[in-house]
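Before relying on records like the one below, remember that each one covers exactly one chain. Contacts with other chains, cofactors or solvent are not represented anywhere in the record.
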Amino acid sequence: MRHPDDHPQPPSTSPGPPASPASGAFAPGAQTRDDRLLSALLTTAFVVLLAGALLRYVLKHGDSDRLPWILGLSVVLAVVQVAGQGRPGSRRAGRVRLAVVVACWVVVVLLAPSFAWCAVPLIHTALRLLPTRSAVALVTALATLVVLAELRLADGFDPNHLLLPPVVAALATGVFVYLTREATRRQHLIDDLVRTRRELAATERREGTLAERQRLSREIHDSLAQGLSSQNMLLQAADRQWDTDPEAARTHLRTAASIAAHGLTEARRLVHDLAPADLAEGAGLAQALATLAARESRDGLTVRFHAEGPETHLPDQVASALLRTAQGALANIREHSGARTAALTLTCLDDTVALDVADDGRGFPAPSPDAPRDPLGDPDPLRGHGLPAIRARLRQLGGTLAIESTPGEGAVLTATIPLTPATPPAS
């Protein structure tokens, strides 16, 4: 008697976690929630198809002597499949379990062809557990056996019985392999993106570290190094005058001690928050520049301070940069220019603040196009770290540095910083 057609249900094509198609796409024991849901779905589908085929056989062939064998093999198939769902185990254990299920299913299909469509969940399980080539070979064998079973059940030749099982198997295999490879490519892309982000973060950390080192070098140069240089000059002068002019030597020593005390304050401030000591405790830039001018007025150099424009509360970074600029400029004047007087002029406008540092020293000629340039590309009329550090600090705030000088007529240094919101250029 011909059995009614049992149309297959399309197998699920979820690829599971990304993996290489050559090694299967499913790793038991390392399942995600979606993997477990898919495994439960496949197990449920297999058990339902198995129960339906068994019930049909009992109703149609309840008096057959094959019934005990078919009933026993069906129980074994259900137990092994359900037990495998409860304890996924390793990949090897999953393959052994699949081999047992396939072997029992082949025997059942040879005894009762109506069990053939239980192969649909097995096809998907094989694709998930086995390497691609092995899975394709097994799927081909399963589809062939289903075709033979359908032909045994048919009363006559039906093209659907010959074509439907291979088409379903090929479709399931093709879609699964495609999705698996697509998931693998997507995972590789994600890995590349993660690696790129890590490399970018590492690069940014290195750049940030380098920028911080450069900033610290400028802070140290404009505070501690200049103070130590002044102390060294004063101590050398005191040593030369110790026997001939003890009073002048003691004056030099007291001045050196004062500079050392200020340097100690600067060092503590650097450790605390890297702000200039003259700006501590809420002192404004004008007051800090006036204090600096008074402190630097010694050893034949007179420094005057003048402020123009309305008194404006400047951002801390702007005030710190201009104060450091004044310190560096005065250090260069004292060391290089031989000037007798210098002037600090602070000009505050609505959108700009400017600091002029002028001296009546020997000056210097304008640099030629072939003159050495500092690391930022600007011609540096004085060798050393001072002017490049000043330029770098101002450029971080969007500011500029201009120098005008004529031999024998002194020099004027102008530092300008905009107060309007702007994105500072990268250092």
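The beta strands are 302-308, 341-348, 352-359, 400-405, 411-418.
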